């Protein structure tokens, strides 16, 4: 088999097992190179599953290698030089010339023997067999997640599917490596910041792909996500257990329903009003039952009864209950057992918890901690003023830049004033893992606001500090 055919067969075998070969083909990695790669190398190149790595190594080992005369190494002893054949025969006849590893079975003489015992882990989603790598001890076993920027939703779901929720929860801390679209690793050492950034991107994608519109959201059913909803619940648990993170745009009423509580009619109605556009809210507030826009609203929600002042509150609650509770009921049935098993949150305290996580100016100002010196006073005033005049979207970007999370997950965000040798190098620098924001000295608030606003608007932040 010549080299092109060998590569084609190798890539075809990998694709049959569902392994993406794009990176292998781009880097021109074939069977010979794979035979020299470690498990970590194969994981980095897109083979995270243990069974796939074993199958690939087995396939590589079965490929004939060219011998001294260009023939296959499996061609038989007749292709070897005669002197080498004679040497082999001599060693076979004389036991003293044999290698020590071929003399007897030393393992049979051992009094103590070791056995590796496997175990099954049930994380509430599925039962998974846990296997250890032969070259690692139990203390050295750890999970390293390789996530691709822009594909975090798919990657985290796959990680939960492969490793299981319980296994990921046991990793303290969970090591995450972010891969840029060009294939280069972000130069960031994760002690929480990279994971928080990944969780923020995950739920941002979730709300875009499979949720309703509005200020707050509920999941929306999709036919292609039947097997994905349970994985989303596991990621929600992973985010809260490891980082105290919850997606703040999920309605509290829906989460209370998942946790086994019956939300109050007031909470359901308030959640629904936040889910509809501002124009529709204005129509409902006017209470003009003959208004054409009001009639269109009723038709949109399939209201078939005559609405008047006496029954309007009841009708509005029925509409809200249908949208907030009934329509995403399938998702709640899938999420419920997982959340109730792993989230130690009382439904009554959920509202207070979600309020504390909200990216609002008030919550951000509570966590800012400044150095106690005269040089920090002007910058602290600038930053407080900047936060107070920030919209919810800018508050989210500020938190994402400073902590990696778009929610308030830390009790303190330290602010330090630093000096830069050049104005060209001057810019705010955030250390997301340590909850530290470094600010340069600015001569005026206008200058500070302009640079910080442009930085947050850029939406291109690469973690490049180790």
From TrEMBL:
InterPro entries: HECT_dom (IPR000569), Hect_E3_ubiquitin_ligase (IPR035983). Residues 382-452 form the HECT domain. The active site is at residue 433. One of its GO terms (molecular function) is ubiquitin-protein transferase activity. The keyword rRNA-binding does not apply. Keywords: Ubl conjugation pathway. SUPFAM superfamilies: Hect, E3 ligase catalytic domain. The keyword Cell wall biogenesis/degradation does not apply. This is HECT domain-containing protein. It comes from Capitella teleta.
């Amino acid at each position: 088999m010549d080299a092109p055919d060998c590569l084609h067969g190798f890539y075809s075998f990998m694709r049959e097992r569902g392994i993406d070969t794009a990176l292998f083909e781009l880097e021109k990695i074939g069977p010979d190179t794979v035979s020299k790669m470690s498990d970590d190398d194969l994981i980095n190149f897109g083979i995270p599953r243990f069974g796939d790595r074993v199958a690939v190594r087995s396939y590589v080992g079965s490929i004939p290698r060219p011998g001294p005369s260009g023939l296959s190494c499996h061609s038989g002893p007749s292709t070897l030089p005669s002197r080498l054949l004679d040497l082999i025969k001599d060693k076979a006849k004389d036991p003293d010339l044999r290698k020590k590893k071929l003399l007897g079975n030393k393992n049979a003489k051992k009094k103590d023997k070791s056995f590796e015992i496997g175990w099954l882990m049930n994380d509430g989603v599925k039962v998974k067999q846990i296997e250890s790598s032969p070259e690692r001890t139990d203390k050295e076993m750890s999970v390293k997640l390789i996530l691709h920027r822009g594909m975090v939703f798919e990657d985290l779901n796959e990680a939960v599917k492969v490793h299981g929720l319980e296994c990921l929860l046991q990793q303290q801390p969970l090591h995450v490596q972010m891969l840029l679209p060009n294939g280069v690793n972000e130069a960031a050492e994760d002690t929480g910041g990279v994971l928080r950034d990944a969780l923020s991107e995950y739920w941002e994608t979730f709300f875009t792909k499979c949720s309703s519109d509005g200020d707050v959201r509920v999941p929306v059913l999709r036919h292609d996500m039947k097997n994905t909803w349970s994985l989303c619940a596991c990621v929600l648990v992973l985010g809260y257990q490891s980082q105290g993170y919850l997606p703040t745009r999920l309605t509290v009423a829906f989460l209370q329903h998942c946790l086994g509580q019956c939300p109050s009619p007031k909470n359901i109605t308030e959640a629904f009003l936040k889910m509809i556009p501002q124009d529709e809210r204005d129509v409902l507030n006017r209470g003009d039952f003959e208004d054409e826009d009001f009639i269109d609203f009723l038709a949109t929600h399939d209201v078939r009864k005559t609405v008047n002042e006496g029954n309007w509150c009841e009708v509005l609650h029925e509409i809200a209950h249908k949208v907030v509770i009934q329509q995403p009921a399938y998702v709640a049935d899938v999420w419920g057992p997982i959340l109730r098993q792993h989230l130690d949150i009382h439904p009554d305290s959920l509202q207070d918890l979600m309020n504390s996580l909200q990216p609002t100016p008030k919550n951000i100002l509570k966590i800012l901690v400044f150095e106690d010196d005269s040089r920090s006073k002007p910058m602290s005033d600038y930053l407080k003023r900047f936060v107070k005049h920030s919209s919810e979207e800018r508050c989210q970007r500020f938190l994402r830049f400073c902590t990696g999370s778009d929610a308030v997950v830390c009790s303190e965000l330290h602010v330090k004033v630093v000096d830069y040798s050049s104005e060209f190098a001057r810019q705010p620098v955030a250390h997301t893992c340590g909850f530290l924001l470094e600010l340069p000295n600015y001569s005026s608030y206008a200058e500070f606001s302009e640079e910080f606003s442009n930085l947050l608007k850029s939406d291109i932040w690469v973690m490049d500090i180790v």
